[in-house]
Amino acid sequence: MGRSVLELWLLWSVVMRVMIALPIAYSASSTSSQEALLVSRIAFGSCANQSAPQPIWNAIIDFDPQIFIWLGDNIYGDVRHPFKLFGKERTIGPWKNVPRFIPSSEQEMQSRYKKTKTNPGYSRLLEKTKVIGTWDDHDYGLNDAGKEFNGKITSQRLLLDFLDEPQDSPRRKQAGVYTSYTFGPVGRQIKVILLDTRYHRDPLFSDGSILGSSQWTWLESELKGPASALTIIGSSIQVISNLSAITGPIFYLECWGRFPKERERLFKLIADSKRDGVFFISGDVHFGEITRYDCATGYPLFDITASGITQAVEKAVPPPLNFIVRFVAWLAPTTMRVMGQHCRHKSCTYGDWTFSRPAKFWSN
């Protein structure tokens, strides 16, 4: 069932550039004395600069999701210095003497979360939608940071406060923000697994661990647990894309592909669990994309990337140059990217803002 559901979705939907709306019939978890209610849609997105305009919330509210999933960079909590090759403080080049990114204070992080939470559009979403999520580097506290970041305990508390996580939640007591949810009635249950790709991650280029031993043990238990019609694995960084193999050594994107042993372990765990209907959702890269991998399980694995709510690659260049970004996206020979007639420029990758109309997974 999982495979046909994914294929149906791909036939009918268009990738979101700012936020991908993934329509599925789902229901919120309820107490044992209540029947789970079947509803219609989950939406997800990432990369929301709290200081930038966020008009997309109006479109998200019109879409009327029952669940919204943050996939990281929910705020930009670190401080970014401008590119400077010369001068007293140099952030790039062979004479670099100061870091380009530095952490904010706890008070500044709180202020930035408050700015997002009190955004009129997001506030209206909170009134009617269950919001869950994980983090990426900028809300973790520092660009590209991993387990070495000293502020991660404070950052974890601030993120969970932002998400209104109950004070007695196990998530507040563990090392990392990974968690899972199960929605819907038996036979149409949807399991959402949210990974933490920061708290335990080894340095880049190390080919070490992304999840750390405790999170790997937890994930194995989650995947080998009770079956569900669909299993959505949320990762703040892309799982399947191999784009860095194309762009390096000019620049590298953070992704599971930079930790090949970890990615192979993840694929093997999914295959060994014999769990049907698994696919990934991700953020981070400031464009939307659908990628596919056929060699991990008995069915294709898809990674649907939604990035970003305010950050978009086509917005990073003057409008007359947008066509260059689109051409490069179309031309980039990433073998993992889904190509199809429903995708603009033939390639399922987008660098601007939009979202799609839904196609329902369940017939009734």
Automatic annotation (TrEMBL):
<protein>
    <recommendedName>
        <fullName>PhoD-like phosphatase metallophosphatase domain-containing protein</fullName>
    </recommendedName>
</protein>
<dbReference type="InterPro" id="IPR038607">
    <property type="entry name" value="PhoD-like_sf"/>
</dbReference>
<dbReference type="InterPro" id="IPR018946">
    <property type="entry name" value="PhoD-like_MPP"/>
</dbReference>
<feature type="domain" description="PhoD-like phosphatase metallophosphatase">
    <location>
        <begin position="43"/>
        <end position="295"/>
    </location>
</feature>
<dbReference type="Pfam" id="PF09423">
    <property type="entry name" value="PhoD"/>
</dbReference>
<keyword id="KW-0732">Signal</keyword>
<dbReference type="InterPro" id="IPR029052">
    <property type="entry name" value="Metallo-depent_PP-like"/>
</dbReference>
<feature type="signal peptide">
    <location>
        <begin position="1"/>
        <end position="21"/>
    </location>
</feature>
